[in-house]
Amino acid sequence: MWSIIEQIFPYAIIFTIPLLITALGGLFSERSGIVNIALEGLMVIGAFSGALSIHYMSGVLDNHTLVLWLGLLAAVLAGMLFSILHAFASINLNANQIISGTAINLIATALTVFLARNITGSGNIRISSGFSPSNVPFLSDIPVIGDLFFTKTYPTTWFVLAILFVSSFILYKTRFGLRLRSCGEYPQAAEAAGINVRRVRYSGVLISGAFAGLGGALIIVTQSGEFTGTVAGLGFLALASLIFGQWKPLGVLAATFFFGFASTIANVSQVIPELAVIPPILLKIFPYVVTLIALVIFSKSSQAPKAVGETFDSGKR
Amino acid sequence: MRNTIVSLISIILGLVAGGILMLFIGSNPIEGYSYLLQGALKNLERIGNTLATATPLVFTGLSVAFAFRTGLFNIGASGQMLVGGLAATAVALTFDLSRPILLLVMVLAGLVAGALWAFIPGLLKAKFNVHEVVSTIMMNWIAYWTIYYIVPGYFKGEFLETESKKLAETDTLRAPFLTEMFDGSYINLGLFLAVIAVIIIAFIIDKTTLGFELKAVGFNRFAAEYAGMKVNRNIILSMLISGALAGVGGVALYTGNASSIQIGILPAQGYDGIAVALLGANHPVGVFFAAVLFGILYSGTGFMNAMTEIPPELANTIIAIIIYFAATSVMIERLLNKFKARKSNKEDKSGPVVEKGDS
User: Fold this and answer.
1) Nearest to B258 by CA among B53, B3, B60
2) How far apart are CA A247 and CA A258, in angstroms?
3) Which terminal residue of chain B, N or C, has fewer Cβ atoms less than 10 Å from its own Cβ?
4) A285 burial class (0-12, 13-18, 19+ CB within 10 angstroms)?
5) DSSP string, A150-208
6) A113 — contact with chain B (CB < 8 Å)?
7) B195-207, pLDDT tens digit by residue?
8) What sections of the protein cross the membrane (chain A) (predicted)?
9) A-chain residues within 8 Å CB-CB of B316?
10) Do A51 and A291 touch, CB atoms closer than 8 A?
11) Distance from CA of B174 to the nearest CA of A (A)
12) What's the pLDDT tens digit per position in B160-189?
């Protein structure tokens, strides 16, 4: 059994990381009071612009690692840029945030494939190679933990974990974090205290765009190596993780890891004899069913930001 | 009236944006749009195909719009379509009944399956206040994987693992007289079902107590409760009807437009339903016209792609942009108000001009 876990672990982490960073982005948006179901579309945008810029830069720059990091940067910028559409609609125009998010999902998937098809002819963009996994020196020699956490890891994994750590700090220990959270709980009070609610919400949505864009590009540089016009529902899964994780950074980490592990088990179940006895359909639907059950359990004590999804009306009390 | 104007302006803006995109990739927008229209409406066969493309969209649009009237957001139409289509396919492949009865049972099976699939999110919403957006998304993926394993396991196609066995022509919603009338198009009886559904739903919403209560719950849940309405029951009922509509939409798609069910795909029509409902201002008749418009865009795009360099994804892009404009209709309404105010200013300079506030 242990050897199975050891085998699965690296794959589970590879699957978890894009989900984690995207859900973390959703956390910033929702904590500021804006529902963001556009995460899926923003991930697609990130995957597209990451793949496209790596594809082009590979011919110009010799340093492949640098190219990959620049590709991630491009994805972050593109995600931010695109999320402005959502921010503008939901903050300035009081649009229904769920409809605006849906529209952005539709635009993102359609537009990226439209452009990709025009560029490559097939609608897919392939990159020559992504990051290669490596052992962390010294730490990978530690028994048990070394094998699980420090063997065959990607540099991006550590990067995302660092972002998680910093985000936690920002959210709970800085003035910006306090303001962000207050805008999601009681924006009228926040405004009375002199906070520019709209500006704070803009930064929440922009951060979610940046993180989701990064999440989308991470799929390209670690798992797939090819943009195909979709992230297969990972954005929605990130949204579910956010709720499952009760809008807290560590909760989100736990929830995304749960999804990562459950999905990996389902994916490899056929080649592992101990797991092959379970019907694959059960393994595949397991995470979704558990999420539904978890939602029922948490429904009594939901930690959802109180003003999330409401349009901001400064006259309301 | 005002909704119609906003929808029309959104459509125009979306088409203009599509034209700009065509210019951007170096194509001629006028040429592109004329090929698109030709592809959708040039001859009877193409018109038939356009109507067939619109048929599932009428159902999913009605489904989303109906839930919306109760203040519910059904993102789960895709999953409900899948299970509806699976139920109908299973009936067609299992039972040996005479055609009229078989078709009736197939439609009923799809209706019930879709309704049951939507019942779970409805129940969770009513009893535990679980947000239906997340629960319907989860149900979509559960449906996706269920189809993924049930179809190859029990109804495997003769040549492909990835799709169900093809239905015999007589076990589908295709009808010889329709196919002939439209010169070999794949238009089918689903269109009639869609028209009937539009009429029934319009009747329920506008003329019945149930419709009134559903709308009341949608406007203000707490006021409705205070007025003695059974809010929870209405939420579940609304989801049931919404799911039933999407389920029949699945029947129309998988046993009418197509004659098999493919695995590994969530039907895009489910998400397009949101767009159709929004553009149709959540009214059944509006939904019908919005679905036909999307049908034109989707079915004309192949011909346009064959005749020009423009990729077929243009249709999706235009639709998505239309929806963004429809979602941000406040912007359009503000412009309209400004325009109106200016006009009345000119006509009557002495009178006070009252501008409508937003809240």
Assistant:
1) B53
2) 16
3) N
4) buried
5) ISSB-HHHHHHHHHHHHHHHHHHHSHHHHHHHHHHH-HHHHHHTT--HHHHHHHHHHHH
6) yes
7) 999 999 999 999 9
8) 9-28, 34-54, 66-89, 95-116, 156-172, 202-221, 227-245, 252-272, 278-298
9) 106, 109-110, 113-114
10) no
11) 31
12) 888 898 998 889 999 889 888 998 889 999
Check pLDDT > 60 for residue B274. yes
Q: Read off the amino acid at residue A237.
A: L
Chain A residues whose CB is inside 8 A of the B265 CB are none
Contact A289, A271 (CB under 8 A): no
Read off the tokens for B82. Answer: 């899948």
String of DSSP letters for B211-268: HHHHHHHHH-HHHHHHTT--HHHHHHHHHHHHHHHHHHHHHHIIIII-SS-BSS---T
Task: Name the residue facing A106 among B148, B320, B331 (closest C-beta).
Answer: B320
Q: How far apart are CA B359 and CA B3, in angstroms?
A: 18
Between B52 and A122, residue with greater pLDDT: B52
A129: Cβ–Cβ under 8 A, 6 or more apart, which residues?
A64, A225
Does the distance separating the beta carbons of B324 and A104 come in below 8 Å?
yes
Phi and psi angles of residue A154, each rounded to the nearest 5 degrees, phi first: -95, 145
Helix (H) or strand (E) holding A125: strand A125-126
pLDDT at A98: 85
SS3 A88: helix
Q: What is the reported pLDDT for B359?
A: 42
Whether the per-residue pLDDT at A275 is higher than 60: the answer is yes
Instruction: Give the burial string for B64-75 (b: 16+ CB within 10 Å, else e).
Output: bbbbbbbbbbbb
Length of chain B: 359
A125 strand-pairing partners: A227
- In terms of Cα–Cα distance, which of B210, B232, B252 is closest to B81? B252
Strand pairing partners for A134?
A153
Query: How much is the pLDDT for A240?
Result: 85
| Separation between Cα atoms, residue B132 and residue B277, nearest integer Å | 17
> How many C-beta atoms lie closer than 10 Å to residue A149's C-beta?
16
Tell me, what DSSP letter sits at residue A143?
A: T
For residue B94, how many C-alpha atoms fall within 13 Å in the half-sphere facing its CB?
A: 11
Expressed in angstroms, the distance from the first to the final Cα of chain B is 21
> Which residues, 6 or more positions from B34, have their beta carbon under 8 angstroms from its beta carbon?
none
